[in-house]
Amino acid sequence: MQLMAQVLVKGVVVAVLTGGACSARGQDFESPPPSAPKPLAPPKFVMPDIKDEWMDWSHYDGSHVSTRLSLVPIVDYNAFWQDGDSISQVGAQKNQWDLRTFRIMLRGTGDSATRR
User: Between 86 and 114, where is the model more confident?
Assistant: First the structure.
C-alpha cells in the first residue's frame, strides 16, 4: 500500500512539473492568409459535358424510391489527310463519325430508414 502511494505521489509530481512544458506560450499569432488567386478560366472542349440541370427530367426522388436515368454515348470522329502514296496503298479513306458505345443506365435506391 505504501509503495502504491509513493508511485501515485511521484506520478502527480511529474504530471504537474511537465504539464507547464506542454503549453504553447511562445507561439505568435497566425499571419493573415494570402489573397486568393484568381480562378482559372474553364477549359474549352470540342464536346463539353452537359449541365446537370439538363438531366433533371430523368430523375425521381420519392419517399420510398429514387431513380435516375442516364444515357451515355461515346462518339469518335475520324478525319484523314492522304497523299498519293497513302491512297495507292489503302485507297481513299472517308471522314466519318463512329458510335463506339452507347449505354443506358438506371440507378437508384430503395426503401430504407434514412429516406423516410
Answer: 86
Strand-pairing partners, residue 72, are 103
Residue 50, pLDDT score: 77
The tally of domains found in the chain comes to 1
Instruction: Supply the pTM of this predicted model.
Output: 0.38
CB 109 within 8 Å of CB 66: yes
Handedness of CA 28, 29, 30, 32 (dihedral sign): negative
| CA pair distance 104, 58, nearest whole angstrom | 12
The cell for 37 is 488567386
CA 79, CA 46: separation in Å to the nearest integer?
Answer: 15
Mapped onto helix, strand or coil, the DSSP state of residue 73 is strand
Residue 63 lies in a domain: no
Instruction: Flag whether 51 is in a domain.
Output: no
Query: Residue 87's domain spans which residues?
Result: 72-111
- The mean pLDDT of 25-47, rounded to a whole number, is 72
Query: Which of residues 42 and 107 earns the better pLDDT score?
Result: 107
